[in-house]
Amino acid sequence: MALIELDHIVKTYDLGAEKVHALRDIHFGIERGEFVAIVGQSGSGKSTLMNIVGCLDVPTSGAYRLSGRDVGTLPDDDLADVRNQQIGFVFQSFQLLPRASALENVELPLIYRGIPARIARALVTEPSLLLADEPTGNLDSATGEEIVRLFLELHRAGNTIVLVTHEPKLAARCPRAVRLVDGLVVADGAGERVAFENTLDLERVAAAARAAAASAALTGAG
């Protein structure tokens, strides 16, 4: 059983006269122990997907299963437990979801080992999933390289890591990458290949998929 199962995920924001289709039929899985980059430019849907994977938001349609549980059916208290116990968050802005102050003492041995505090805090509960949002975004190149090496070390130790980034060079360091364009998965495979594929070709694929979906919707309406 895959750790993460995204089953035809759709996320639409209703802005009154306009609907924004942030995610369009996202369908893939992530096995335990994988290190996967979700890569895309601003507006691609990667942050929306991160929020759903992190149980911070719910899809408009489709199912998201984490460790076999359909998290979309869970009440708020159970969702909070999933976030606090099964998911370790590393945010670009260095913030963290609230955790009990008692965990601070557990963080210290990890920090003394040289692990940055924000990553140490994400690891203290031994989560099933480590979810990192642009983890090198605010760092100089040398420190960013140290963070990448740390994630690779954590991956080799058996941790499941999903890293969200707009940087192809960072995605290329991951064994696997999934590229989003306009809310669609347009490539999924080896990190280096996906990261450096011709983005113009991928945008044409996304445009064709959007046109096909719009045509199907009109046909259904008729």
Fold blueprint:
Blueprint: E1 4-14, E2 19-30, E3 35-39, H1 46-53, E4 61-66, E5 69-70, H2 76-86, E6 87-90, H3 104-112, H4 117-123, E7 129-133, H5 141-156, E8 161-165, H6 168-171, E9 176-181, E10 184-190, H7 191-195, H8 199-221
Parallel strand pairs: 3-8, 3-9, 6-7, 7-8
Antiparallel strand pairs: 1-2, 1-4, 4-5, 9-10
- How much helix, percentage-wise, in residues? 25-40%
CATH architecture: 3-Layer(aba) Sandwich
**Number of beta strands:** 10
* Rg, Å, rounded: 18 Å
Average pLDDT: 83
Domain unit count = 1
Q: Would you mind describing this structure in some detail?
A:
There is one protein chain. The chain is an alpha/beta fold and 222 residues long. The protein has one domain (32-61, 76-221): Rossmann fold. Helices cover 37% and strands 28% of the residues. The protein contains 8 helices and 10 strands. The chain has helices at 46-53, 76-86, 104-112, 117-123, 141-156, 168-171, 191-195, 199-221; strands at 4-14, 19-30, 35-39, 61-66, 69-70, 87-90, 129-133, 161-165, 176-181, 184-190. It has a 6-stranded mixed sheet, sandwiched between helices. Strands 2-1-4-5 form a 4-stranded antiparallel sheet, with helices on one face. Helix 3 packs across helix 4. The longest helix is centred in the C-terminal third of the chain and has 23 residues, at 199-221.
